[in-house]
Amino acid sequence: KTVTLGVALSKNSIVLASNMSLVPQKTLSNPLATHITNLYNNSTKTNVTNNGIKYQYDITNGLMKDADGNIRYSGLGDRNYVLFNCNTYPNTSCETWRIIGVFEGKVKIIRGSQIGKYSWDNKNTSTGAETDNGKNDWTDARLMKLLNPGYESEPTRGSLYYNAKSGNCYYGKNNATTTCNFTSSGIKNDTTRNLIAETTYYTRGNNSNQIFVDTMYDKERVSGTVYSGHATSWTGKIALAYPSDYGYAADLSLCQKTLYDYDNATCTANNWMKSIVTNNGGNLGWLLTPDSVSANGAWAVDSSGRVYDYGYAYSAYGVAPVLSLISELDIGSGTGESNSPYQLSV
Question: pTM (2 decimals)?
Answer without folding.
Answer: 0.92
